[in-house]
Amino acid sequence: MRLRDVGEFGLIARVARRAQSAIADPAGVVLGIGDDAAVLRPRRGEDVVVTTDAVVENVHFRWKTTPAALVGARALVAAASDLAAMGARPLAVLLSLAAPAGLALDRLEACLGGLVREAARHGLPLVGGNVARASETSLSLTVVGAVARGRALRRDRARVGDRIFVTGALGASALDLARSERRGARARHRPAPRIEAGRSLARLASIGACIDVSDGLAADLGHLLEASRIGAEIDPSRLPLPRGFSRACKKLALDPLRLAVEGGEDYELLFTVRPRGPGAEALSRRLGLPVAEIGTIVRGRGIRGLRGTGFTHF
Amino acid sequence: MRLRDVGEFGLIARVARRAQSAIADPAGVVLGIGDDAAVLRPRRGEDVVVTTDAVVENVHFRWKTTPAALVGARALVAAASDLAAMGARPLAVLLSLAAPAGLALDRLEACLGGLVREAARHGLPLVGGNVARASETSLSLTVVGAVARGRALRRDRARVGDRIFVTGALGASALDLARSERRGARARHRPAPRIEAGRSLARLASIGACIDVSDGLAADLGHLLEASRIGAEIDPSRLPLPRGFSRACKKLALDPLRLAVEGGEDYELLFTVRPRGPGAEALSRRLGLPVAEIGTIVRGRGIRGLRGTGFTHF
Questions:
Q1: I want to staple A33 with a disulfide (CB 3.0 to 4.6 A). Which of A16, B49, B126, B235 is the partner?
Q2: What Å distances lie between residue A28 and A19, A76, A145, B107, CA to CA?
Q3: Which CATH fold topology does A155-304 show?
Q4: B155-304 shares the fold of B3-148
């Protein structure tokens, strides 16, 4: 069976069934799939956080190398990670799907199944979307969240003297990609959006700026510094690497530090804390995750200390 | 210049400049383009309305036959019309853009200019989005609105005895499409989303169900009836047609009634009102628009009375 055999409304009905079975009665959803729009109800005193992110066939994924369910799950993680970076609690997700009429329905259903399951895991009911014909498949996701009024985490809040921290470890997604590109291995790594950690940081009085690591540490730290109009000094020896990472990189003749600095899609949180705030150990207890201190916010612009790690923007 | 010459971040910077100049200080926007997500602030006691809609090159539009600014404006109208159908006031819009690297920057900027100007006209600041490479251009829009708690207009609220009304006139978009397809004329019709009319209907105590006419009267009335699990009796002689419409249709050997019943993208509001509610004249004064009474909600399923109008679903 192909997409054209069930058509737009047939597909919507299938997606709606999946979405409803995934989350029975999500709090905050007044009206889900089936009307002209979804209706959501944030709590009193909350701001609404909304963002959109897309993955496109042959640009962000290939059906050949990535299992269909993982395509859907990863698309969801990428979008949900932006909620984490804002410190927001998840409210709902909408999917704008474009696909060729000849796309195999099995593949599409596996992809949407992966998406809806991953969304349910993070408390994101699928409440709407639309389906369009196109020459290649793309998933454009809109995620909506809520955060206590005025407490959203921002990129532009770093100040001189802030310490710079990162959750978890960097480079696992880049290694997975290199493996599937060089060895023809099926992609398998599924990073987790740091939603609970983000919410916890939004309550931290001494929080500075925050961003998620989607384009790679160097690029995303660059975005944070640009928004804050300030510079950073990084200690590359303190970058947190996954277990067994250096050994696995060497097998593929890859530079582990370069992967950690330039590799994207790790979806860790990169954030700064005022000098009087907690250190890595206290933060790690608070967030329930490994947290590494990797540098300091300094006067000027750009990143110092990454020379020799493969990062060559300066 | 092509899209590839400015790249993703260059394009985002251009779009952000346009978006900022279009609406200087939109109420309800705490944080716009430039962070991981936008932050919006509905008023106390409001529900949040959110929906997504996409247009794809060669499916919904062709660069050859539709001026680029109109492509952007129409995409915005289609999405904003869903807010109108919910009775919501506009808060913000996000754009997920996919485009080939070789797309002419002039064309893209004209398209985005049309979109942002149309958005500003309806009080929708562009607060975020993303850009991806793809083999054809597509614009996936997310619009966010707000409506008094529990007052969102819904499709599933029609009851036996309700009178059925439609705003404005039906068929103008279908005629414009037929002209551009048959005569090679450039498309030029730009329908308006009925946002103020929708907000006014959301305050009407005797309101029943509501939907916007995007797929065509027959199809959208069908959606409304299906959601409400009920039937309708329509009087085709009362369908409101644009001025000079029948004459223009005859020139192209088109059946005016068929265009009015089956033509999509008019974005009028189709709604029902309880028997004790106002009639067409009072509604017209209230909404500041022509309003026509076209039929009644009846027991059973499906639409009676459209036989002989070209509508053949039954």
A1: A16
A2: 15, 19, 10, 41
A3: Phosphoribosyl-aminoimidazole Synthetase; Chain A, domain 2 (3.90.650)
A4: no
CB B162 within 8 A of CB B297: yes
Our CA-based measurement puts residue A308 at a distance from the nearest CA of chain B, in whole angstroms, of 26
Task: Enumerate the residues of chain B whose CB falls inside 8 A of the CB of residue A224.
Answer: none
Q: Please provide residue B297's backbone torsions phi and psi, each rounded to the nearest 5 degrees.
A: -80, 130
Q: What H or E segment, with its residue span, contains residue B179?
A: helix B172-183
Kindly report the CA angle at A73 between A68 and A74, in degrees rounded to 5?
Answer: 100
Query: For residue A145, which residues of chain B lie inside 8 Å, CB to CB?
Result: 37
- Kindly list the domain boundaries of chain A, sorted by start residue: 3-148, 155-304
DSSP A39-53: EE-PPTTEEEEEEEE
The strand pair at B269-273 and B207-212 is best described as antiparallel
**Inter-axis angle of helices A68-86 and A105-121, nearest 10:** 30
Q: In Å, how far is B146's CA from the nearest CA of chain A?
A: 9
Q: How far is A246 from chain B (nearest CA, A)?
A: 30
Pick from A47, A138, A212: CB nearest B39: A47
In a mutational test of the A interface, the residue from B4, B35, B93, B220 whose CB has the highest number of chain A CBs within 10 Å is: B35
Token pair for A74: 């990863």
CA atoms within 13 A of residue A76's CA, in its CB half-sphere: 29
Question: Is A34–B82 a contact, with Cβ atoms under 8 angstroms apart?
Answer: no
Reading chain B (314 residues) residue by residue, the pLDDT tens digits are 898 988 877 887 787 777 766 665 677 999 999 999 999 999 999 999 999 999 999 999 999 989 999 999 999 999 999 999 999 999 999 999 999 999 999 999 999 999 999 999 999 999 999 999 999 999 999 999 999 999 999 999 999 999 999 999 999 999 988 888 877 778 788 899 999 999 999 999 999 999 999 999 999 999 999 999 999 999 999 999 999 999 999 999 999 999 999 988 999 999 999 999 999 999 999 999 999 999 999 999 999 998 766 555 44
Please determine, looking at this structure, whether the domain spanning A3-148 carries the CATH number 3.40.190.10. no
The vertex-A142 CA angle with A96 and B71, nearest 5°, equals 55
